[in-house]
Structures are given as structure tokens and as C-alpha cells.
């Protein structure tokens, strides 16, 4: 049985690795050199988690707590709608409704709508299940309390 908990420091390597490995080939990841990608991805996860409104929830196997089945990084308070920075489910768990459970555990109601920052091939395949979700990568690029820097 898959359960959920607030992520702990012990979950950080799983979260960083999941993001790094699953997002690196996304067209939306940008022109980052492959050798630089792990360090950049790991630092980005820490920045998301350190934001005041971010909740990090981990799915795990009840019988084997160190077997993690996915995670969600989401902000429910800063923006008009819930903002999902990233949701990751390893391939071995993708047919087990882990993503649905992570949404529920994080307080996100997919049919009510939410915004998300990272688009992957897997998330594009799920668009029919999240019809009111809106891809808005720029929304979460900065703290909304900081003034926007002018474009050059």
C-alpha cells in the first residue's frame, strides 16, 4: 500500500535525483550542458523546497518505508491557484495511481485546476486527466514578492 508523508531531509536525494533524471531531456529544460545539469537540477530542487509556501510530499511503500514511489512539490498559498513545481513518479509505479494520491495528499484537486512549472513527455500524456491544468513556467521562476526585473 502506498502512503504519503511530508518530505524529510532523508528524502532530498530521492527528490533531487527524480527531478534530475526525469526532466533532463525535456524540451523545456533549456540549453543546459549535460555535465552541468545534475548540479543545476539539485540546486533548483533545494530552491523550490526553501520557498515559504512550498509543500514537499513523498509517496512511499507502507511495508518498506525506504521505497519511495514519487513526490510532489507544490505551493498552495502564494499564487491564485495551486502551483505545482514538479510531480514525479518512477516508471515502476506509474500504473498504480501514485500521481493521483500525491495530488490528494498535497491538497491539489486536479479537476479544479492548477498551474504547473515543468512540462515533460509524461505530463503531456496525462493532459486528459488534468484538463484544467495550465502550463505556466514563468509564474514560479521568481518570488512574487520581489519586484520583476526589467527585460533587457
Which helices and strands occur, and which strands form pairs?
Blueprint: E1 2-6, H1 12-23, H2 37-50, E2 54-61, E3 68-75, E4 83-88, H3 98-106, E5 114-116, H4 121-125, E6 133-135
Parallel strand pairs: 4-5, 5-6
Antiparallel strand pairs: 1-2, 2-3, 3-4
Helix pairs in contact: 1-2
Brief sketch in words of this structure:
With 152 residues, the chain is an alpha/beta fold.
How does this model look, in words?
Helices cover 26% and strands 22% of the residues. The protein has 152 residues and is an alpha/beta fold. It has a single domain, classed as Gcn5-related N-acetyltransferase (GNAT) (Aminopeptidase), CATH 3.40.630.30. Strands 1-2-3-4-5-6 form a six-stranded mixed beta sheet, with helices on both faces. The protein is globular and about 55 Å long. It starts with a strand and ends in a 17-residue tail after the last strand.
- CATH top level is Alpha Beta
Strand order of the largest sheet: 1-2-3-4-5-6
Q: Domain count, please report it.
A: 1
Share of residues in strands: 15-25%
- Low-pLDDT segments, ≥5 res: none
* Biggest sheet architecture: 6 strands, mixed
Q: Strand pairing plus helix content: what structural class?
A: alpha/beta
Question: Number of DSSP helices?
Answer: 4
Please bin the fraction of helical residues. 25-40%
Name the CATH superfamily classification.
Answer: Gcn5-related N-acetyltransferase (GNAT)
